[in-house]
Design a protein that fits this description.
single chain; 36% strand; alpha+beta; six-stranded antiparallel β-sheet; 143 residues
């Protein structure tokens, strides 16, 4: 993910969210620590899915679980500048999908995150409903 220069361009991600940084997020080197950055990615993912649920009936009753998270730290994040968080759907599988996120500040892209989510049926992983797939496809990364 870190080797793809397109991942460092904010406009390629259709979902945007501004998150305020907090003094408590700093480490001893006075930059945003890795746990705070992971929280920012989680907050972005959760707010994206909340947005989808408000916008589409296709998500009623759909459950998905986080299966994998990978984070690349590219530069130091600083307080008090806000984080410009971006998100896109990177891949749709049969029962899972991968979202890509990027965190930007004044200096550019400070980090990337990929998260794999699995659709959960009553007995475990299950094929994603077509309506849900259609909604996710509308949020694809812009190559």
């Amino acid at each position: 993910m870190r080797d793809n220069p397109n991942r460092r361009i904010a406009e390629r991600y259709p979902f945007a969210l501004e998150l305020q940084t907090r003094f408590i997020d700093l480490d001893v080197n006075r930059h945003i620590n890795n746990v705070a950055m992971a929280r920012a990615y989680e907050e972005t993912r959760v707010r994206f899915h909340a947005h989808l649920r408000r916008q589409s009936e296709a998500l009623k009753g759909v459950r998905f679980l986080v299966a994998h998270v990978a984070i690349d730290y590219l530069a130091e994040g600083h307080y008090p500048a806000p984080l410009d968080m971006r998100l896109a759907v990177m891949h749709l599988g049969g029962s899972s999908y991968r979202i890509g996120m990027a965190a930007f500040q004044d200096t550019g892209c400070v980090g990337l995150c990929d998260t794999v989510l699995v659709h959960r049926g009553t007995d475990g992983p299950a094929p994603m409903p077509q309506g849900f797939r259609d909604v996710l496809a509308g949020w694809a990364f812009r190559e």
